Structure formats: C-alpha cells, structure tokens
C-alpha cells in the first residue's frame, strides 16, 4: 500500500479500497490490513475518518517543527530568477555512514545526485544527495536534468519522517569553487535524513554560502528558509 501511494498509483485525495477488499487482494486478515492502515496514518500518508473511509493525504507542509522547503519556491519568493543545474548522477555503493542511514544492505547501490540551485545567476545551494532505490525505484528512470531532487521527492513522498542536523563549517575546496565563495567564507550545512515506516528514503547534505543564507521562524514555529 505504501508503494502504491509513493508511486502515485493512489493519488492524493483518492479513497482507498475497503479493508475487506484489501484483505482479499493481499490474502491476509482484516486485522492485518487495519494495522497497516494505522501505520500509514501514523506516517502521515493517509487520513482515516470514521464512516468516511481512508484517503491518501493531500500534499501540504509536514507537521514537524522543521519543514522541507522547495528551494525553487524559496528563491522565487525572494524575487530572484531560479536556475537548476545537475552536476552528477550515478548509481553507486554509498559510503558506510550513508548506507547505515538509509538502511541498505552491504552491496546495495543507491542513486547519487549532485546539483546546484541559483538565484539571479548566483549559487545559493549545493545539494549532494543519495536516494534509496529500493524505497523509490522510479528514481532510477528519472534523469533529474529538468527538476531538482528536492522538488521531485516532495511530489512523491510529501509526508516523510524527517531528521535535520545543522552546522556551520569551513568550506571544502570543491564547495568554495561551486558556490563561488570568498576565501575563508564559511558555509551553513543542513544534513537531512527522511524515512517512512522505518525505510530510508533519502540522505542529503545541503550546503549554503554563509553570507547568502539565513533561517528564521514565525511565532507559529513554522520555519522559513532563505
């Protein structure tokens, strides 16, 4: 059922089949289907209403303290012209720390993507990302030449569980070159891990020029990324 939602076989707003119909299709008890429905509801993928059935949740902001922003929208909301550039795409064995974060087997490959996001021709964010192909096999067929992985993932997995780590760091030589940084200019890094029902979806390192990035919150604790 999770795969049907993430692959959009069941679209946002769609009414799911009854528990009886699903138990017959999958050859299991209604109690098993009911438990699976509860897990999908807890993960934010479906909404269950008594006498109204279960529907796929419409995409909206994640009900966590820190949401996942769409970088294109963030740049355009500042009145800047957005540009996206894919630098690298390959299927490869991830580093050990990434493999553990995504819950992959020892020799299981993942999709690696490196991309840049610009505002008015100036680099605003370097996106270095791994995607679990076992969780999202359709990513293997996407070139990511015309759409950033950030936006692509939110269209298919609008309500993942999220873990963020924030830190200021000294830029690497590659980061300094790609982000067009001044010498010794620091970077602000966001490391994000997402998962659903215990299955890792993506692990990403987002690098921003320290002088061109700020993070603010409203009184509702809903974040704004700039």
Automatic annotation (TrEMBL):
UniProt KW Transcription regulation keyword: yes
Origin: domain of life: Bacteria
Record-linked InterPro entries: Bact_HTH_transcr_reg, Chorismate_lyase_/UTRA_dom_sf, Tscrpt_reg_HTH_GntR, UTRA, WH-like_DNA-bd_sf, WH_DNA-bd_sf
Signal peptide: none
Keywords: DNA-binding, Transcription, Transcription regulation
Keyword DNA-binding annotated: yes
Domain (HTH gntR-type) ranges: 1-59
Protein name: GntR family transcriptional regulator
Classification of source organism: Bacteria, Pseudomonadati, Pseudomonadota, Alphaproteobacteria, Hyphomicrobiales
Name of the gene this protein is made from: hutC
